[in-house]
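WARN retry 2 of 3 for item q-0093 after timeout on previous attempt; input resubmitted unchanged.
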Amino acid sequence: MSADTINISEMIRTPRPEPLRPPEAANEAHVIDEDGRLPGPGDPYEAHGRVSARPRLTLHCLLEGGRRRGFAWSNYDGISLEPPGRDGSGPAVIVHFAGRQWIDLVIEGSNLLTLYDWLGEQKIGWIRECPPGRGPNGPDAVSIRKITVRDATPP
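OK item q-0093 returned
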């Protein structure tokens, strides 16, 4: 037989390889698709998850005191970048969601321009407030000082 000929009896005798399975997670409660696990309270500070090559399904917000809140990217309605306010607030990225209710997610911190781009493309799975007593991971690193969830008025 030539190399291009299929031998059915040989195919039947050859065992199929086991399908590839994802590694078991140490803590299933923290697992979110390809981003891996959400950071826990004692983990080193990172402002956001890895940037994905494709849009995410949910944006998880890791808030002060261990609180968490998730927003479906399917309800995403736009994004704004606000300059620093005269009162010392900001700069801020405002992510608009229009699901069962209209919500603005206000993210205040430093070095937010790149975060604005990635959030606008829905390529980040989680963001995290900087815990008290910790600072950014360098002068150019994204740092999130405060995440506020507020009701928004429909346009």
